[in-house]
Amino acid sequence: MMTAEQLVAAHKANVETLFGLTQKAFEGVEKLVELNLQVAKASLAEAAEHAQAALSVKDAQELLALQASLLQPSAEKAAAYSRHVYDIASHTNAEINKIAEAQIADVQKKFLAVVDNAVKNAPAGTESAVALVKSAVAAANNAFETVHKAAKQAAEVAEANIQAVTNSAVKAAQQAPRPKRSA
């Protein structure tokens, strides 16, 4: 049974962990807001440049050529933006996972200490129950590790897929046919 001091210490640790997780989440949101502000500023400047360029065209074919020349950089910028968003989310997730893993490891360690203490003080004749508890704890730990490894592998596959899609989109934009300018 937990003493009052142990209970207070456990609650304090949980509150600290919660605030640590919240801080990491806010850092991720701050990075996204900063990225979006940069994109908005750049987009506004580009819109002004594009408007000036569109106003200086002399015929429809030149306008089509201008539009085609703007397509590739737009696709590349959209891919880069998506990559930045993914990187921010991935980094934030990694930081949160690191905190959560440390917390889970600490809880497992404390739980195993309680189980070991209970085993040492178990009355005679309860060996089979003790073995069952130890087996259940080991199975739970193995299941957690298996799920954790599978989640990491899934994240790696998702990252590889996002990279492949981004590269494909940029290549497709680069290979898009462009209207020829008239002389």
In brief, what are we looking at here?
This protein is an all-alpha fold and 183 residues long. It has one domain.
Spell out the key features of this protein:
single chain; about 180 residues; mainly alpha; 3 helices; about 90% helix; about 0% strand
Note down, in words, how this protein is organized.
The protein has 183 residues and is mainly α. The chain has one domain. 89% of the residues lie in helices and 0% in strands. The protein contains three helices and no strands. Helix 1 (4-55) packs antiparallel against helix 2 (60-120) and helix 2 runs antiparallel to helix 3 (127-175). It starts with a helix and ends in an 8-residue tail after the last helix. The model has no long low-confidence stretch (mean pLDDT 80).
* Structural domain count: 1
User: Can you tell me the overall shape?
Assistant: elongated
The pLDDT mean sits at: 80
Name the structural class.
mainly alpha
Radius of gyration: 28 Å
Report the helical percentage.
Answer: over 70%
Could you give the topology of this structure?
Elements: H1 4-55, H2 60-120, H3 127-175
